[in-house]
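Below sits the subject:

***
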Amino acid sequence: MDIRKIKTRLVGKDEVFQLLALGEATKLPVLLLGDPGVGKTQALLDYAAAKYNYNKKEVRDNTFVIELDEGTKTSEIKGRVNMKSLLEDKEYKIDAPIAKAKYLLINEVDKGTSGVRNTLLSVMRERALFYGDEIKKCEWDVMAGSCNVIPNDELENPFWDRFVLTQKVSRVGADSMKEIWKAKGKINEYSVEVPSKAEIETCTIEKKHMNKFLDIVYGAASDRTVYHIPFITKAIKVIYKYSDIEAILKACELIAPSKIGDLSAKLETKRENNVRSMVNSLSNVINGGNDSYSQLYIGQVADAIIEMGKVGNYAGKSLALANEVVEIIRTSESSNDIVTEQATALYTELYSKLKGEDIYNDSLDLINNYKN
């Protein structure tokens, strides 16, 4: 297991780094969607730098970022003739940084011409560049693309299907931005695990759950993507430290997000579905600006989570949902001291109900960190 220790000024990008680790472990292309300035490019550069222990030369030699626009030529994808070698050494040599890079980011992939994207499609399919009889293999550990959003009229284009793993990169919430101002360039550290193929293969997922996954997602994904689902789900379970159902739901989120609701209904009990629906509605409630109703609703969510935690093996799922609730409150642009206090109360009450469980002792630091 390769432990990647990432140093970055970015805040709240844990899941982006986990996604890049997933892309590296599975060798599948990643697409980062999000507004300009949310840290898509910097996240990849920070992730790559961690691989080379922040040796600037190694980072430069092994990363390549290209910005596409209407003027980008196919030669910038396939490579250009090295004129120095041709004129001085009489040697015909192609420089192709896209093939050489270990960490590759194609920015603004939606802005490229059809010719450029067709060339990229071929390169992504074959993981190689072809020059007549010569084949130059691509050496990517991570191949990523980025853009603001996939254009509606492009959704059926096979080009986008090549990006098997797609994730939205969100803006930093207003409260988090205030903390960033206070920190004045503080370096944050994240640690992610990049498992080997063998380590992923030894992981197991309940077959009946995977069969339900396939039934739901089959019509929303290509055969190419569906083929990779078992390996992707196992890798998610290892990297994200998820249960079987959590790993399957995360895989669905990355592959076919429109099917999350259907899949959740198939995999989770009625109790879980009801509580999860309440949690999913929380952000809209808080952003509605009615503090009194927000407090009341958070209390109802807390009660539902605590009640669920009393039943059978639901303690772990209750804690995960509580974490989601507090994260939603913490990152909400409408969050305030009163609502934040309610989140702390949720933590305290939940953990007191779970006292005696192993998970309670493991989570005391989370409570203290949140209160501070």
